[in-house]
Amino acid sequence: MPAFFLVATTLALVTGTSIASLEAVVSASPQHVERDLQTYTSSDNFQAQMLAAVNAERAKVGLVAFCTNKKLQASAQLHSNDQARNNFMSHTGSDGSSMSQRITAQSFVWSSIAENVAAGQVDVTAVMKAWMNSSGHKANILGNYKFFGTGYAYNANSNYKHYWTQDFGTGSSEACDSSGTVQSTTAPTVTPTPTTATPTMTPKATTATPAVQQTTTPTPTTKTPISTGQTMQQQMLAAVNAERAKVGLAAYCTNKKLQTSAQLHSEDQAKNNFMSHTGSNGSTMSQRITAQSFVWSSIAENVAAGQVDVAAVVKSWMNSSGHKANILGNYKFFGMGYAYNANSNYKHYWTQDFGTGSSEACE
């Protein structure tokens, strides 16, 4: 049975030393779909339909319209083709490529980029509805970008058949294209017998790439690793719940399984001098959380590096719509991790893990 998957990620300017990234995970109720045939071909100009749908949502809240950029268009289309051909849904390509690597490969010189990915929805209307019902994806669609590209590919012999990508970006040297029509690369197509399917949307974790913000180089507050004991955990939980209280949301509670997952990931990043949702062993957020026996219905993660204390990193996350959406999200359980390596690029490495699960408990 095919399913709907939605994934959003953002990435900002690669200068400075303060880093943040997000991975959004969503779930929704089943939706009935009346057909399972290929919806669009390269001659249907679905790109213009998607651009119009995106700009209609932006207009509702008084935002300026995006314009099509052929480099983002090519990146998005190639990624949808890759997912359809190789029967997967992720921000990480079958060759291990990240969103930023694919966009850079198209010679797009960017200061900030973001990506939405989905699978299973049969047309522009359906996938836009799904994305707009997810705070992380909605944040990208309504984000502070200028250029836009979209991709769609179909493979009747794959799990989800329909594969969607949206790429967003800003870049001072980039330009709008005169037309929303961009020649797409050929996607795998197999004409199936018409069927009726009932896709179900299930949570899907995916890897994401670092989002780097412009900040001055932080001065380490310690020369040795800071204790990862209860005090820092309590500080972070209090800071997060203070932000939730400002908008009338219920407080999170600590869950030791999420705590362990987050701490191990921060230690991995510090030890191996990297910042990503993908662990040094290739693990994803969902794999790490599941490895701690957390039985989840939805999960999310924020990662950052370079900020010297809880106040600084929470401020950084709250200034980013995607990370803010996780902090203010519809979760119950929380865990955080911090690790320090004086010999690494960013020294301070932070992780927040969020989750819901009917069999899980507060500590």
From TrEMBL:
Coiled coil: none annotated. Residues 1-16 form the signal peptide. The keyword Signal applies. Residues 179-227 are annotated as: Disordered. It comes from the Eukaryota. Keywords: Signal. This is SCP domain-containing protein.
